[in-house]
Amino acid sequence: MSLLLGDIVDALGGTLEGGARDVVISRIAPLEIAGPGDLSFLSNPRYQQQLAASRAACVIVAPALRDAALARGACIVADNPYVYFARATQLWRQQGPAAARQAGVHPSAVVDPSAQVHPSASIGPLCVVERGAVIGAATVLKSRVTVGEDCCIGERCIVHAGVVIGADGFGFAPEQGRWVKIEQLGAVRIGDDVEIGANTCIDRGALQDTVIEDGVKLDNLIQIGHNVRIGKHSAMAGCVGVAGSATIGAHCTVGGGAIVLGHLELADHVHISAATVVTRSLTQPGQYTGMFPIDDNARWEKNAATLKQLHSLRERIKALEQALKAA
After folding, report:
1. How far is CA 213 from CA 132, 229, 249, 270, in A?
2. Strand partners, 3
3. Going edge to edge, which strands form the sheet with 122-123?
4. 71 class by beta-carbon count within 10 Å (0-12 exposed, 13-18 middle, 19+ buried)
5. Per residue in 94-121, pLDDT tens?
6. Which of 88, 137, 150, 301 has its CA 20 to 30 A from that of 203?
7. What pTM, to 2 d.p., does this model score?
8. CA atoms within 13 A on the CB side of 149
9. How many whole angstroms separate alpha carbon 193 and alpha carbon 247?
10. Are the CB atoms for 249 and 233 separated by under 8 Å?
11. Is 93 exposed, middle or buried (CB count within 10 Å of its CB: 0-12, 13-18, 19+)?
12. 57 phi and psi, to 5 degrees?
């Protein structure tokens, strides 16, 4: 497929400079591989060298990079080039074959008669929608998605292949060396405009519901435990694990492979670095990191051994300080 450069600007705004509106754009591509028929973008000034060398037909840039972009050819000047790029990808998808997606239920899907599926929703191949579940308007379930009993998904959501919503939470009571199952009597409630990556699992609540609020974005292979609540417009990268009954505020981000322990609370606008283990509640906005830097194994073992002695070293230093004060 292709679009005229002028049509892209008409649809998305911005200012076209140094180029003709009738230039045909056949692809959106990164700066380093873009060719004469491609649209590209630059949002980070550190890559300005790639801008000068790029063969793209047109580059989306911020006002500060306008002159540099014009020196090599056509550009679209936008206040936020990264967001403009995102909108351009959406426009491209709307014009492409994916736009032909039909609402309705694929013949291989299994939908319980008591489930409510909005007529504009799309239920993909081999999906299972169980008793009492609700699928909102314009929501898309890709292939092999399972939506458990009484779970609710809002409007305009995208749920990628292999997602399981509403499996039992991990709840067991110990009794004389054995485990007694705690039946999970809650459900999962997902708001509007949520996107859930492939093979992510969101467990149903034990008594109350697990809640994913509007605009949340979850990557692939994420585990959300029972009774977790994730606030509006928060985002999590791949392989994050959130243990049961944790509450995560709005506009938070959690980096790949990070873990949030159960029953903790994260305030709004908390940002967790990749591979961090959150072991306490975080009541103030900010960036939090807790990881031990990679090193040569022998040095790492020595440093790890030293860490075990930090408490005794601290006590010795405090004793020395007191002795100096007394002298």
Report:
1. 20, 8, 10, 16
2. 25
3. 104-105, 122-123, 140-141, 158-159, 195-196, 217-218, 235-236, 253-254, 270-272, 286-288
4. exposed
5. 887 655 567 999 999 999 999 999 999 9
6. 137
7. 0.91
8. 5
9. 20
10. no
11. exposed
12. -65, -35
